[in-house]
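note to self — DONT lose this again. spent like an hour looking for the file last time. sequence + predicted structure for the chain T wanted, 367 res
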Amino acid sequence: MEWKNHDLASEFSFEGIRYETRPLKTPDGREDTGLHSTWIILDNEKQLNSYTTDMVKGVILGMRKASNDRSCTAVVFTGAGNRAFCTGGNTKEYAEYYAGNPEEYRQYMRLFNDMVSAILHCDKPVICRVNGMRIGGGQEIGMACDFTIAQDLARFGQAGPKHGSAPDGGSTDFLPLYVGIEAAMESCVLCEPWSAHKASRLGLTTRITPALQIDGAFVPNPLVITDRWVEPSSGEIVYGEPKSGKDLAEAKELLKSGTINLKKLDDAVEEMIWKLTNTVPGCLSKTIESIRKHKLSHWDQNRETNRAWLALNMMTEGRAGFRAFNEGVGKNREVDFLRLRKLLAEGKTWGDELLEEVLPKKEGVAS
């Protein structure tokens, strides 16, 4: 039979995206020919796999191509290396091109929205393989996936109000469905990252695996409390919370002594692909689509108004926040929050003068 080609673009290649097919693996490690998984890999490791405009286009076309691939049984969405799945939009591009250009950013946000929708409408189940940090927009495109399998050194979180934006690219829609209103509010507003263990406890992941290898053995993330217990005096659940004091200092030394090995993560991903393949395909697709409706009902209701607001915000707080992150040094990559609030309370209006007053000061420059 001669198949018709339903791809939007038969061939595509965008800088920063790798599109690969990998043979289906049986539980005993053999390759089963004739079927495969598709891996869409964010390949911008030097910038923590933050996505540029071209990379967003690549994800859209990749998800469409995988949808139409008759031999593909599942899509794995991941990042290069072991430091980050994705940390969101490329802040250098945001600061140097989109900041102060709301109409350009509005066009960019059309592409971003289409990327999220492409994941949610993919005809194959999508697994987010979290090989490192999943922060900001990375968290949002990760939650658009159907399953999350993470290595346990990964961190999950938002960056919006700390960096001049709002997590309206999906987190304000999806996160309450995963973890409830209170936990979503805490994450989206305070932008304090969660460990993979805390994310697992709250229901944000399907599975987590150890990645730290010391003397040939895998050990859980030493920086957080990984014993599932409740603090006796307060009744507070502490599983997944960070260690402190002497315990944290010892944990950091332990972390330095080991190496990161993602074999267990990859084994867990291959196991999930095998399980998904061993279902009836039409029934699998319908089940996934029915569950996705809960995300889509919120996403479709809000994405266009969010797009418009995010574009306009690039004239004020977005412009300040992304420039601060791009131009700052080390940990000094945020606007002066208190100075900004005081200036606005005094009646100062947004413009270059206000902006320069709240951006991080270069070393040796008086405020």
